Amino acid sequence: QERRTKKTKPTPPRTMGATGVRPQATRASGARINPFTSLFKRKESSEAKRLALKDNLRARIKGTGRGVTASQNDRAEIDAMCAQLERMNPTKEVLGPYLSADWLLEYTTSDSILGTRRPFFLRANGPIYQTIRAEKLEARNQETWPWFSAVEATLVPMSKNKVAVQFQTFYIGSLIPIKAPPTARGELEITYLDEDLRISRGDKGNLFVLSR
What we know:
Layout (H helix, E strand, L loop, with lengths): L36 H25 L10 H15 L14 E8 L2 H4 L13 E6 L4 E6 L6 E10 L2 E11 L3 E4 L5 E9 L3 E6 L4 E5 L1
Antiparallel strand pairs: 1-2, 1-9, 2-3, 3-4, 4-5, 5-6, 5-7, 7-8, 8-9
């Protein structure tokens, strides 16, 4: 006697949804996978990394006297940390109103600003500010105690994140103005900008870290 074979129903083909796209696979629990979940998590992780790197940079430059006491090793490490932040710059169009502020100089490699070739008592010991008015294309560098010297400059955009700097007037003790020569000029690239931190690099290779 022949053995009867059990008939099986054919598996129906997968159907397309109303949009013409096959339904997403589901987890074992039956919950649908959100295609944006992994993207959101990556973005959240990148933002957390950026904020942590900012905190580490601030901790690293603290105690260097704006860079006066920074060793070559210190400078190399700080430069590398800034380079990492620059690759994560959240502001692409930096030459706008967001740039306008009274910026406090936290760190620089510029010997002329730090006054490393001058005796200690002739250096700027108080805060140093850089005021930028992007809408007017104007800037002012201001030392405080003890000399209160300053310099005013005009800015000329060269690209979306770079300006030419033409110094106009130097002030001795904020009282005696001296007209700057035409040769008193430079370039400044804003490589990182967010709500409270700015990183810039000058045409002579100097690094500037400022906060507001």
